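Deviation from plan, reported transparently: thymidine-5'-diphosphate complex.
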Amino acid sequence: MKVIKYVFQPHGDDRGQLVALEEFKDIPFSIKRVYYMYDTGEGVRRGFHAHKSLEQILICIHGSCKILLDNGTEKKVVPLEKPYEGLYVGNSMWREMYDFSSDAVLMVLASELYDEADYIRNYDEFLEFNGIKKGE
Ligand code: TYD
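Because the crystal trials were delayed, the predicted structure below was used instead.
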């Protein structure tokens, strides 16, 4: 499984750092929605779903967390701990987010508006969606 991590260009000077993200330039899709998670409780694990068509870029803009990516046959854990790094998560990819530091802010840029119908929340359905037979 190929993990696509973006390293964004920080514009640093003696005042500090600034990262700018533009659709189709730094981000490979049109940004229709932004959401972020913070104050995540210790030991919390969230996500546990895939999307039928949504594409996302995950950026831990403060603190750190880990992302588990699972394409149904292979799993990869990607630590996110830099505000200038983004993890691309395409459709048909099961994801779980965990190990949030108490100060973590995980921001997500999404290619579509919120649509519950795009979610696959059942792992067996996810395998089926990807054409993988259970136990393979
Ligand atoms: P949820 O899907 O449980 O988050 P996660 O996948 O990280 O565990 O979302 C939590 C709540 O927020 C749920 O009530 C749906 C709502 N929500 C929106 O209204 N818009 C959004 O864009 C997202 C991602 C969630």
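Residues 33, 35, 46-47, 49, 114 surround thymidine-5'-diphosphate (CB under 6 Å). We consider this an acceptable substitute for the interim report.
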